[in-house]
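Morning!

As promised:
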Amino acid sequence: MKGTYLGEFEELVLLTVGILFDDAYGLAIVDELEKQTGRNIMISSVHKSLVRLEEKGYLRSSMGGATAARGGRDKRLYTLTHAGKKW
Amino acid sequence: MSKTTPPKWAVRFFKWYCNDHLAEAVLGDMIELYERRAFSLGKRKADLLFLWNVITFLRPFAIRRKSTIIHTNHIAMFRSEY
């Protein structure tokens, strides 16, 4: 598990994953962050934070939920680990 | 009504540079976002924004790493020497 320090944006992403519960994937997190902050959020920034949070052990991911709107591609769904919930 | 799709060359470019762990999920997100934008902003603007998204993913965390390829022939050759 990498270092445990979280940047401000990573904290927001972590909280948003918690809020979205079992529907936390890239675009849903972007939508919720834009709704909460009133700012335009870049999808690449969210994905970068998700990757880093997973490396640090605060999130785990699994594939699922392919839809026609996504060209039949699976979503990478994120959930909080025990460490993520404690944080 | 035909479904609008993002520029194929941009999709191919993204699949080429992005690592396998992220490619499918991120591309799915970008396509979902593209379809929303095509509906509200029109195809041209959606294409430009899709291209912008592809460019913004050109970051170290998303780029495919060179994998080390072990040529089994070399190993077999080495073993045959000893």
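The interface with chain A takes residues 22, 24-33, 35, 53, 56-57, 59, 61-62 of chain B (CB under 8 Å).

Hope this helps with the figure draft.
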